[in-house]
Amino acid sequence: MAGIWLIPFFPLASAVLLLLSAGRMPRQLAAWLGAGSVGLSAICVASLVNDFLADGQVREVTLWTWMTVAEFTPRFAFYIDGLTVVMMSVITGVGFLIHLYSIEFMWDDESICRYFAYMNLFVGAMLLLVMADNLLLLYLGWEGVGVCSYLLVGFWYRDPANGKAARKAFVVTRVGDTAMALGLFLLFTELGTLDIQPLLAAANSTWQVGDTLPVLATALLLGGAVGKSAQLPLQVWLPDAMAGPTPVSALIHAATMVTAGVYLIARTSGLFLLAPPTMEAVAWIGLLTLLLAAFAALVQQDIKRILAYSTISQIGYMFLALGVGAFASGIFHLVTHAFFKALLFLAAGAVIHCLHHEHNIFRMGGLRKRLPVVFWSFLIGSAALAALPFTSGFYSKDAILLSASEVGGIGLWLWAGGLLGALLTGIYSFRLVFIVFFGQAHTEPDRQPGWKMSVALVVLCALALAGGLLALPLADVFPAARAHEASHAIEYISIGTPLLGLLLAYLMFLGRQINFDRAADSIAGRRVRGFLFSGWRFDQLYEVLWVRPYTTVAHWCRNEPVDRVYNAIVASSQWAHHKLAALQTGELRWYATSMVFGLVLLLAVMLRNAT
Amino acid sequence: MRKRGGAIMMEMLFYIAAAVALLATVLALSRANAAHALIYLIVSLLAVAVVFFLMGAPFAAALEIVIYAGAIMVLFVFVIMMLNVGREGTAREREWLGGRNWIAPGILSALLLLELMLALRHAPAVTSGVAVTPKEVGLTLFGPYVLAVEIASMLLLAGLVGAYHLGRRFIVRRERRR
Amino acid sequence: MGGLQIPMEQVLALAGLLFSCGLLGLMLRRNIIFMLMSLEVMLNAAALAFVAAGAKWQQADGQIIFLLILSVAAAEVAVGLGLVLQIQRRFKTLDMDQARRLRG
Lower Cβ count inside 10 Å, N or C end of chain A? Predict the structure, then answer.
């Protein structure tokens, strides 16, 4: 297909138009331009997917040479293989549904024009990221989505808290991005190219498995991925990033951008396979993050923060999959997660939208009958999130757990940890469902979701249910995975765990047969709850470790310590001036006398030296 | 070394001239009346001219008289006449000359003199006793020193222009009151 | 024509004495006319030293430097006396302790 360049072009052009209009565009036009451009991209992607599935050929499109600096000639080029096609489909497909949903969600906002400009810019940058033929172009998209994330988290910038959250997201991801940039420098100096496919080939021919350099390079790339995908230890920004509009959370902080790290590792899987220590680190990071986030999600009260922690947790599963070498399973989970998490966020957004921007789940309740479409969407999304049988999440998570269990040595631990995470996922997702949609009503919805929201929700419901049946064209991208030969016991345990979680959630939060209230209200219980509520106190830790020393230094620097030296010079010369100016009396005789005095001294010195 | 009587008289003449020069200078610089001071200064210059002549520099001696004691001092005379200081001015000068004003300048001058004398201790030499004629001076002046002559002419021209400018009256009229 | 053989240190001592007298006058007097006279004395003392040196080495250079000093003195007096007139007109005094507008 010749018009591949059109795919990122539509959203980028629309973003430029919307930005140039400076908010004076009629909101009807702005909204449909924003959603329509992504829709057009989605149609182009659909046509591309059709072609790709027919012939399965990798497509390379070079638009122009970006720059030429001696040996370094990165091209503005796209590389389309199965992985790219999958990512593009998710970005434009889910992206279009979220844009459609946004029209209604953001209709009353005065800055709708700016909103769609940022969203389109984000989609364009994300497409560049996944389509990039070389790591430099990928980095352009990578930073582009970072900027859009910053702009959209701080979209309601009049509240300083939102600006703070945006800055936090930006700065924390910047830490990872710096590591990634260093990784790119290292790769370029060692291998002489940043084009992904030649780079992987060169790496395979230059380095042996277990060499130091690939470990170092992949560790640096992993740093970037960890930052972008909100994994341990850089996970702290994602819960706060929920300050943005809910569709933004759905698109950027659930479905697409935060999974860019997973994409990066999958894209450079050839490199990671050369570095077994890094792979193991990826797996452990994934496991620890998924457990940590799942525990934190258990006690949150803000509906979006629960979903944010569950996102961190699910990306942890993806990292786990990547770490054990099951790249296809990781990408599969990425896709299904994009479906069901976007669905959950959009449903949560609908709840918030209909309840006067209420975020606290304990002020909701009993919405099952009042918002039926939203209820069913949320239920399906939660089922998929908890990986109940025959939902999309079930297939992908099952594949990850099986892959983990087949790894020798640490595999059993990884599998057990993943299973524990699945249990927790079941509990917290259905805790959410039971508290928000069952029981006593605390707030009455003042409106029903309109057709745009409903369409987006229903389509995503279908995808979340049936997404597990998709066969992703990833066979050519990754080394063939071993066929799963798990014992039936492991299969049954995998199926049973989420159900157990559902049962526990029912008993705790709806049936009230198990009552933790007294334990939770004890001093120790409060401590534990507070600890988990704050996300394992990572914010406080970083506050002490980094933020305070930094602000201390900044405050110190604010007083211009270097300038003080110069100011001292100025002050002393001014002082000397005032003192010495007294010598300039204007009296001629005084001058003559001082000259004679100097002359006498000079002669005395000369005489002393002569003798 | 035996000296002839004439030479001894000449030598005496040198010391007399030196004494006169010194005395006249001291008197000139300690007068309250500017016109008196000027006369003493002229005497001092004439005495120095005698010294020049005795040392065998007749050309310098003539110039000392003609230009120094003549032309330059006449300038002073003109200016003193134009200023027309008068009796009260003389009285004021006398008042300024009294008492403590002498201390610091006196000490400094004495120190300088002491140092100069110390520096002269180790110079046992006598003048050649052979005159340098005006002809030699002229040949040297317009030979190797012609550039210096040009520079001196420039200097004098600058002095001329400066004096002309400073002597004009309108500078006063254009001065703004502070 | 013969000159006189005079010990150099005596001539130079005379020059030094005259110079010191000039300096003393410069520092002592408040009237600018006397200051200019003191300057003349100092220049003259310097010239004496040069002429003495010329006589010692029997060279014309000493007298030539005397000539240069003479022109310096002439120019200085011309400008200096012009300044005296201006000062008298502006400050209505010749007291240099009162004409001190250059005070820092």
Answer: C
